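Changelog entry: the Tyrosine recombinase XerD record was regenerated in this release. Current contents:
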Amino acid sequence: MPGMTASQKYIQIRGVIDTDALFVTLDGEKMSKRQFQNRVTYYGKQADIKGVRCSFHTFRHTFAKLSVKNGAGIFELQQILGHTSMEMIRVYVNLFSDDVMDKHRTFSPLVNIKVRM
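Regenerated structure tokens:
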């Protein structure tokens, strides 16, 4: 399985199932939000993760942070996370504003402006 993403490995192990859901129960049924939340918490305890709350909320928060750090736009992030308003996206962007500013420096048009004195 070298060269495969974690998602590809998971799908290969899980097998092909007649559902659009990524995460399924042992019966091949779509996993409920509560079941997924419980799994995240359970596996966090199994992995003996310390110093951070291992929860569905933390999972989404980390996803949003890494997405912003990798240059995700606010509109794409809003769609992916399923937020109907931009308010929560603004919270994520403001939380990681230093990361956003660092990323901005790489694509800002001002980078290529030369000043002559």
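The mean pLDDT is 80.
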